[in-house]
Amino acid sequence: MAINPVIDDDTFTGADKGLAVPLRRTSAASFALRITNLDHADPPAPYHAGGVPRTAGFNANVLAISAAPAMPKIVVDCDAVGFDPATTKIVWRLQTLYVVGRYKKISGGSTPHYRARVLPLGDIWTGESSAAHFTLFGNDPNVSFDNLSDRTSGGHAILTVACKPAGSDVFLQDYVHLRITGTNPTETIVRQYVHNALAQRNKNIEFMADAVVTHENNFEQFDPAVRTHTSYKGVRFDWPTDPAKFTSVAFDYGIGLGQFTHPGQETVGICWDWRDNLDAGINELLDDLRATFSANKTFKTWARDAWSMYNTGSAGSSPYATKLAALPDGLKVEAATPPAGFDRNAQTAHVPVRPAAGAPRPWPVTGTVSLQAAISPHLEAAAQAIVDGVGGKVTDPQMLAWMWPKVEHEIVNHSGHDQALGFPGLHESGVTERISHLDRAARKRATDTAFAHLWEQSQTALASKAKRGAKKPVKKAAKKKKAAKKKKTMRTVMAAPSLVLRSLQSATGLSGEFNSLIPIVRQNVDGGIGGWTNMRVRMFALFGAAGNPGAAIPRINAYYGQLVGAGFPPSPSTTKGRDTPVHPVVKAKLDRAAALLQGGGAADALKFGGIGGFTIRNNANNAALLSNHSFGWAVDLDPELNPNVSKARLPLDVIAGLTGLDLYGPVSQALRTPRPFATCLPDVAQFTAASIGLVDAFRTMVSLKAAAGFAIKRDTTVALTAAQIDAAFAAAAQGQAAIRQVLANAGVPAAKAGVASKWLLAAVQLFPKKQQVTKPEIIGNDATVARFGFFNLPPALAAALIASDGGKLSWLGAANSTKDFMHFDLFDADKPRLVG
Known about the structure:
Blueprint: E1 6-9, E2 27-28, E3 31-35, E4 62-64, E5 74-81, E6 90-107, E7 113-129, E8 133-136, E9 143-145, E10 155-163, E11 172-181, H1 187-197, H2 203-217, E12 222-223, E13 227-232, E14 235-242, E15 246-247, H3 268-272, H4 274-292, H5 299-312, H6 319-326, H7 328-332, H8 344-347, H9 371-374, H10 377-391, H11 397-412, H12 431-435, H13 440-469, H14 476-494, H15 497-505, H16 509-515, H17 519-522, H18 528-542, H19 549-560, E16 564-565, E17 581-582, H20 584-599, E18 611-612, E19 618-619, E20 622-626, E21 634-637, E22 644-645, H21 652-659, H22 666-670, H23 677-697, H24 701-716, H25 722-731, H26 736-745, H27 750-771, H28 782-788, H29 795-802, E23 810-811, E24 819-820, E25 823-825
Parallel strand pairs: 1-7, 4-11
Antiparallel strand pairs: 2-3, 3-5, 5-8, 6-7, 6-10, 7-9, 10-11, 12-15, 13-14, 16-17, 18-21, 19-20, 21-25, 22-24, 23-25
Helix pairs in contact: 4-5, 5-6, 10-13, 10-15, 11-13, 11-18, 13-15, 20-29, 21-23, 21-27, 23-29, 24-25, 24-27, 25-26, 26-27, 27-28
């Protein structure tokens, strides 16, 4: 079959969003701290602060991960003036970020379609040094690590040192840019690693794995050359430049030694640690071996089927399997069948992977590189144009905050001159031309600045309006004249670029306040800076400093700095969002739930689609409160298939009638209290069975009639004939009384006929609504529930999260009000203090 690739999108949005550059303050009063032995030069142009350096040249700080692999030793010499590091320790931080751009395949066939995709992956190490001269990753006794582990990460890096000597009012801080590249292992090292990983397995499995590794990428984890493009089937795929000795990534995101090709499942380790890359590839092959095993197959046939599934997703013959079978490693695979007692599950169990690293310490120094140096005329002009375009249309602060996320989304994600901006006034103000000169990060900064300026302007207007309202009314002509004068003045104010420039440079006001929040807070406020205005007052109060942002924000930053990646399910896992930030208390509970499942032989229950958690926002069911998600106290699992549904929108009578489960009855009540896993599981399984039964019943009208007949027999012992069931469904057109009469005529007792007629009528009326539903919804209703169910998580997973010997979390699927089947959070007694 001839392949003709099609590129739908080649704009790599976000490809220049790099590490934020720290504030440099090397002296204060009589104290000083400066790195003396490393090159302080910025990466060469076109790099800019906050961007991604991609040129072949760099500064002198280029280091390489060893073939072992291990992080490079980094020797740091500091001038420490006015303090002794032995008593006032130097804190250090190494940040890495790799921003790669390639293409994601979005459809197959003879004309596969591809879209540009940007993947940022980074890591952070932190610690302390009790000496001015120290070595990172070198077993230096003067150095401590907060989160040292057996892992590697490369790309652009920033090394920062800081301290606050006794008697100093501020932190001293210095930083340098580094480039960390990779070193390929030898074939011997790789083969030995595969051998050690599979040493306890049948030798044929090692041969099969060796064939895959040999074929995929010529034993290269890192590309020795600069890469800017490749051609596939006559089509050129261009991408943002990768320097030499960075991760080897194919045009379609095949990564490293094993050409791991699962967009959305990539990790730092898969890109920068060849062991993680091999582990992921080996475990994927083991999964395929488990799925294709048959005791009657020869090892050769088994290998062919597993290799084909590894490459194509289907067992059987394939060109890929034929190539592997002809390799020296493939020829070693035996033609014999597995021996007696061959344990498929043990032989294909995943190889263990390295544990996740701990969390870095919250960095004590706030602020980034001087804004004055980073402001460009285009950025200033864009912010001014946004102010001009919106300020003339919206002056009410509540309206401004409500509509801002849409304005921000339009501007930040603008695709070019050919796309008109939808908000009235924006296009006329020249925003389109201004933002065409800015990358995505700069557009975000321009919108944040514009909002802060407009917000302060709206507050001033509101206060002025209130003041005027308290005065004696003026004559109409005088009032008109005054309004015209004010309008003219307002235009003059908005047209003054210096005011916007001051907003860009300001460390005070709303913009300064928002930017003083640490990144994990800013990036997770629902609605960005506009959303912050709607919750800042409540946040300050919750953190014990009502009306005092200067006191509240350090507390907010300290609290959110301790959030960690959930790491749930544990590695290896393909679950989307598994490292969503949570409070350490929640992580510990998730870890206990995972350990319970793994130790009990139920690890398959940890396979689900996605997990989300941390968002600072209002409670979806009570806007007067902040959601538990706001504090890292909750997680949502597969939200669309386990929806949030209010009691009024659930088809409770239909569910109870067809499945026999009262969603608010004794089973639900029991699940509100943590009990042992073995006790919880049967109750959770009833929710699972009811959800599946409901979906099965509503697949077709024929299945609905069959399910209704079964349910009526279950509840009344009366077995209706097909004709009687048809008559009952036909009677629904005349209402409940007509259905009740049909059931009574069929021998159903009167009281039970009344109950059955009620839910049967509701089911008949629900069926056409269900037919109109095409996709599940996070906020569900009766039709989405009938089409997709209400609870689609593995029952053992939910039971482990609820159980007293597992996570001991509250599940809102068992709530007495709105059912939130996706949501697991802390009981009130387990919620940590926000302050102190």
